[in-house]
Amino acid sequence: MPSSPGEGQEERQQAIPGEEWEDASPAQKIKWLLGPEGSKWGWVVYRTCYKPELDAPWEMLQRIIVVNCKDEVGDDPEVLDKMDWRFVSDPTTLDGADRDI
User: Fold this and answer.
1) Which residues does the annotated region (Disordered) include (predicted)?
2) pTM confidence score
3) Which of these, 1, 84, 73, 86, lies nearest to 35 by C-alpha position?
4) Helix (H, G, I), strand (E, B) or coil at 8
């Protein structure tokens, strides 16, 4: 079993012929990458600017990301139930942060 995310994916990817991978739907690719253990998948999105006028756009961005992702992967419950987005908003530590933190 892989000890970290992404570990072991190269072996699984090599087992699928290139054309089959190219023809697979986004949901099929995600299920295949998750493997039989079916761990959670998603991304962490950090807010690093906390101007008051950006509060509403931040809320909208979160909705857009989740809705667009669901639209892209379809209605496959095996994929949707494991989708785990993390939106981090902590002005005390992240306001003005750059990529190197």
Assistant:
1) 1-24
2) 0.68
3) 1
4) coil
Contact 47, 87 (CB under 8 A): yes
**Where in the chain are the domains?**
9-94
d(CA 8, CA 78): 21
**Structure tokens, 54:** 């950006």
Q: Is 83 exposed, middle or buried (0-12, 13-18, 19+ CB in 10 A)?
A: middle
State whether residue 22 is helix, strand or coil. Answer: helix
Tally DSSP H helices, then E strands, for the chain.
6, 2
pLDDT digit string (tens) for 38-65? 788 999 999 999 999 999 999 999 999 9
Phi, psi of 42 (to 5 degrees): 150, -160
- What lies within 8 Å, CB to CB, of 16 at 6+ separation is 24, 32
